[in-house]
Design goal:
Six copies of one chain form a homohexamer.
Chain A (H helix, E strand, L loop, with lengths): L10 H8 L5 H12 L5 E8 L3 E2 L3 H11 L5 E4 L5 E2 L4 E8 L7 H22 L6 E4 L10 H11 L3 E2 L2 H6 L11 H7 L2 H11 L7 E3 L6 H12 L5 E4 L10 H13 L6 E5 L4 H9 L6 E4 L1 H4 L6 E8 L2 E2 L16 E2 L2
Parallel strand pairs in A: 6-7, 6-11, 8-9, 9-10, 10-11
Antiparallel strand pairs in A: 1-5, 1-12, 2-4, 3-5, 3-14, 12-13
Chain lengths: 336, 336, 336, 336, 336, 336
């Protein structure tokens, strides 16, 4: 599949956005207006239904660059900035016929991405500067997984799990340790850790998952003894059936590693983490190196965006219930 | 963009799912296992973290067909069926090396789609047999909009807004009336309605949006007088700033249309509808023809799915916290 | 009906208060005490069951002036002052036989009036200095409507709807715009407005009700165009079935009037307003000229008052559960 | 004061209702319509904002009889009947000019009275057939006290405290025992009881208030010994400072009276009673003879009534937000 | 310490109850009454402040047997029976001087014991017939620990932890497995289990605690392999820091034991269990053999008992607030 | 019964603590370890499950003095000090065989006593320096009543009701007034008060209970007139059936006593007092001399204590879920 969202959409994607993925009533409006020879220069404002972190507007502008024509204009608030409730974050000034059918795509890009970026921001702010890694690609359809991860990084995550997500976000590479499946196939965590150490390139961190077979504290000590100084950290991903990862568990594993002389081994945790739980760990000053977050970001609901015509041929005009005229917003920058 | 999800994924999509969109640690596990010459026949069970409507499993099976090899097996619960909490809905029996790196894609397909289908089912069940149309493509990224709409139809919606969504779901065509923008460009609802009537093919229903300029009851009567028997219905989409669509408004518009002899004109409503509000309309026996639903379906969170190895080389085996052995489930059908 | 409450009660009212409207057990006590030749100089304290605005005490004192005799004394806190919980606001020092049967009337005057004045004060304090007009006479029996309106003005209202209410409160005249009924009879808001303008004396403000037939914003513009500079304001009284009057509606009507050059037209709102809703409008800095308040004042519950004998023949004495002796209160002023 | 509400309003009351106590905007509408020579036969429906007991409609009809003219019609639901939410309980068919200015009075009569009757009904239904007496005249302005008591009887009370209230309601006489003040003046409950017994006519029940000086149980026994078989009952009105009247207190007083052979002495209670507390007494099968209720009835808020024009010159017509046309209601009876 | 509560209190205990442990004001009353030569035959009723399970009355009766004299009488509801709110469960008919100073002791025996028995009953009723063992002696002062355990058995527990508790309750012996301390001293659970098996008599059940060093599932298998058929069960007492004992943990341990062929090994759980948690286990049909309960029984608050004189020299008499006369109760049986 | 807890436990109590009242599994562990010739020097830490006031540790140390041997060590936080959540308040360093079987007793002493002391402290802190007397011995089994009272005094109570409780706490004597039973036997409160005055030694305060027969205010005046300057105070213990003791009652009794010239008579209250109610009295600046508190202290739940081995033969070691090694606590003082 062609995925060129970081540069400019391929021609077939532009066509897809304007036809296959566009609400059919925009296409019917286009046909009706053309049949009646009605068109006009409009100012259309895009704004969100709640405050948050704006994301997806860069991709929207890239699409507009493909479809707007000479003399048309667009203004936008920059990607990753905070946005206020109903604040205009994108404005298009152009004949309606130039871009009307793309409204579905333009709104959708900002809705999904801002939802994920806003959730990520809320979580990252609880982490007190510690690294938060997005691990939730598995909870969204793979067509959109890398875009979700890009949005999480815009929201403040330090890393993400898929190679394309990392590439879209301009990171050096994706982040990850090892799955339970691999350890099960080796039948023993220490054997799995040794094989991983042998076959991975040096730039892959040696972080070993320690909850597959044995008590986490016991397994951490076994792995630390086996890999010694090469071990960068252990990952705790204790399942809910075993109480999940808790402040007490982290404290104890840290204490037992230290007692055995393994102060160099970091602790990485994952499993059902969200803003509330990270706040608890930080409030308890848990000796955690970084957090892996899944559903709390990937299941964040989209933030609904709306596009309203506010001027027609230079005159304030809008539908009932809204204020006519393009609302002044000094944060808008000319982008086209 | 190539979108062949209803048939079988194109080759470049398969590669995309296994590399660009796959969690990197599965790729590292693949390399480590290969380097250590470790592999085994496994039974891997896929199950969800809550009850709902299973969706996306058909697409998952299409992907498995591309990657599994002779002798491998797969079993699934049928698309659109209810699924229980932690019930195994997909089982793969194959050497781990044949499909391990696709876990991200397989889980993601079912997570997103089941989330949307489950939300749609809940809403449709409140509607007492009236048609519910999915109008929420605009709230999700356009790469995934048609898939969301397909899932909404699997969940019970009678129609959806995008042409590709309709095609994936096997519908005759997409559904839609007219946007506020078109009416604003015409400057008058009656003029817009007349042009729409003139330029649309006969199979497009004449349903006119009546809240753009005037009071809905007044506008409904104006439109009904202008289009007469050709008018199929009016759509109420009153903005929240004007109180939204309410039971009282629908009742009054119905009464005024009837008093004027327009019993043939149906009432279609949209705007922030969800299960709770539809239940209220139905409890009040509102004379509504069909419901247009957006965010309540399109913003539904994905339902997390998990994949666990349950057997290795025929022996029950799994990680700590889970029950070893493939759980018997008579609802699973052999699909590969 | 003779209504002279602002001066002194007519003789037949005094008799009415002491017989027809007096609790019969006071009349029986009077007869028993007289039969047994028992009487005594008492100090009787009147106090309320909760804090609020004292109202009705002036009328009570006027009644006492008619019934007390030479040498009797009365003390009161001034009308319209705040009163504390259980604070003595009226004290009578006289033989019990002089006034015992009027206890029902004295308590009732203060109970009803203080209830209304207290509610009005609470609302007026939310309005940030904007005018609040009492419009609730229709919710109370007409025998008491003007007294309710008098109390609302004591509580802080700038105007009220009935001529006698205005007279009792010392206002120049009653306040009011036009009812829906008049507009319905004219069949069009503009025609009604023009007739109103033609037939009303100049001192009646031209404020036109704009929600009878059409969308309020549309109708406001039609009326403003018709009356021009003579139009003082529009009144929004949108029914609940249409969402009621909201912050957004006011903001939009203001914007559309201003865009059309009608900055001189004020906005008056009414319909289910109470302290909470006025606080919301003021918090949103709504461009509102004045508030019309009905039920929130007129349905305010009375505040129960109690009268206790505290001294008999100069000695502290009272019933079980109360503190004997007239409680010192420097706010009491000699009134008789 | 002339109070003829049970027969027909005196001429000066009719004028008072149409001028002094009428919302001024009805009078302005009257003048405008007359100036513009606009009038029409209308059907005006009166309905309440919540379900309850209809009261005050008889008085409203008596007023209409004074003002309607030959050929005009009125229909009403009978006084004291239950009424539904928004059910039309009064309909006038007449030229608007005949009755428009009386809308304030007509609504107000039904609002206040229905509020009180509804509260009384709710309380009486909890009392399991025991007598409930309205004692709350003291909490409302004396101009309206007897009307409140009339409404309480319509709602189901067996008696009330003021002579005029009793007369309006068609009772033989008002109900009452003796006030604390009388006992304080006698200085001893037994002396007060003996004087009361001596000076009251035989048809006044000998019920003695027993909480003024001593413990209620002790005082009950003293009084019973003093009056013997002539004592009909004791009234408990224990103040909140002493815990109020409770189930336990009633039970104990009953037991101590019975132990001493005074089974014939009934127990009457009062003091802050409402539906909830009466339910508690009845649930505990308290041996209570009758309940005296004050604030729970007299402070009941009015129930807002609304009057809407529903037809003009025979054609369905009404304001925005309402259903045009007089709503059919088989419970309406022709009264004029 | 002499502990003869199951037979009759030793002489020094009787003296202790009447002096050292008796409220001093009873002793002062005794001296005052004697000095004034006042005494009388009384009926004193003992009743509780809430419903529950009566316990401690047997001990109270044993004390009364030591102190009452010829001709005195006592009546009681049997030990372990349900008791109602304020139901008389013990009645003494005797001269007050015979037993007045023992009121503190008599009340205290029933208060503490009924509190514990009531809590135990509530828990046992949730356990669906499975054995509940009282393990909470460690949470109460050791002077009272065995009495608490006796009460728990009266409430329905099948066993308790202290030898004297078991003896008082008539059980064959105390219940217990092994403490963490013992396993820590052995340094390995298997070694500890083998030593326990070697040194314990045959009538001690081989139940091994499996959460000291390793994951519970892993340790259960190790122990089962070591002891084979001699192993009666494993005890799960997982600390809160590791998530506590959960439904999922029990289910998994059961499954792994069964897969390995150890169906004969039972599962015993403890650690913070109360009625709510036992209900959850039973609702989930957890394969649990028996429950060990501590704090939920041992920290149960005492149930306050009161003793009231109800008759003096055969006449009904009591203090204010209570009903005079001994209340009839057919459940009372003559015990002295 | 031998009760020497304030000095050192008698030999038979030591044996009782180690056998009859010890959890049997400690005795089995002792036997198993001895059989296997396993023992070790351990550090065992005792800590509580919530913050509070430490009490019972003195008694625990007295027990340890009887059982530890030469070279063994113990450290403790002082009796009556605040203790933190999980803070080590007692540490024993000795071979496990020296003290293992006494764990039940050691924990139980601190659990019960700290529960009572903590509740007392919370209540005393609300009383603003006024005296709080523990009156709750009657709610706990008499074997433990004096220990409860000792704990209440450690928590801050100024007095207690039982002679042994007072002795354990080092007070001069127990506190108490007179019971209702004594007054009932005299048949009149004044007679009872006079006899009490005659027969009690001078050091017993003349405080008379005034709610037995008459209204408290009336009875207070009668008693004050009878005893004059010898009367130190009245006690209000009004039963709940009569509303209990309230702020208003105290205020009125104070006012009536003062009006009659009895300013020297103090007011003592009791009856269902707890921290919340005392806070209300103090907030109202009630003129109260001292508070008698029962259930609010005596029914306080024990605070669970835990004992963990933290070192074995000098090496950090503990069970899963806990941090190995004796936690440093500078508040610990060497006591053995």
């Amino acid at each position: 599949m062609k995925q060129e969202t970081a540069v400019s959409p391929a021609a077939d994607l532009v066509e897809y956005y304007g036809k296959a993925a566009s609400d059919v009533y925009f296409q019917r409006a286009q046909k009706t207006l053309a049949g009646a020879h009605v068109d006009a220069a409009v100012a259309m404002d895009f704004f969100s239904s709640k405050a948050g972190v704006l994301c997806g507007v860069d991709e929207a502008v890239r699409l507009l660059r493909e479809i707007l024509q000479e003399g048309d204009e667009a203004y936008a608030v920059p990607e990753g900035e905070p946005m206020g409730l109903k604040e205009t974050v994108l404005r298009v000034r152009a004949p309606y016929s130039h871009f009307g059918v793309y409204e579905t795509a333009l709104l959708g890009m900002m809705s999904s991405c801002s939802g994920w970026a806003t959730a990520a921001r809320e979580i990252v702010e609880e982490a007190n500067g510690k690294r938060v890694i997005s691990f939730g690609a598995r909870h969204v359809h793979p067509l959109i997984g890398p875009v979700m991860e890009y949005s999480a990084v815009i929201g403040g995550c330090a890393g993400c799990a898929t190679p394309l997500g990392a590439q879209l976000a301009g990171l050096l590479g994706a982040s990850g340790t090892m799955p339970h499946a691999m350890i099960l196939l080796f039948g023993d965590t220490v054997k799995a850790a040794q094989a991983f150490d042998e076959h991975m390139p040096d730039d892959v961190l040696r972080i070993v998952l320690v909850d597959t077979f044995k008590d986490e504290a016991e397994e951490s000590l076994r792995v630390a003894e086996a890999l010694g100084k090469r071990l960068r950290g252990v990952r705790l991903d204790t399942p809910g059936e075993r109480g999940g990862v808790t402040v007490d568990l982290v404290k104890e594993v840290r204490a037992r590693l230290d007692l055995a002389g393994f102060e160099h081994v970091g602790i990485f945790i994952s499993g059902g983490l969200d803003a509330t739980r990270i706040r608890e760990f930080e409030a308890a000053k848990s000796p955690i190196h970084s957090y892996g977050v899944g559903m709390a970001i990937s299941s964040a609901p989209p933030i609904a965006f709306t596009a309203d015509i506010k001027e027609i041929n230079g005159k304030p005009m809008t539908k009932r219930g809204r204020i006519p005229g393009a609302a002044p917003n000094p944060r808008l920058q000319r982008v086209i």
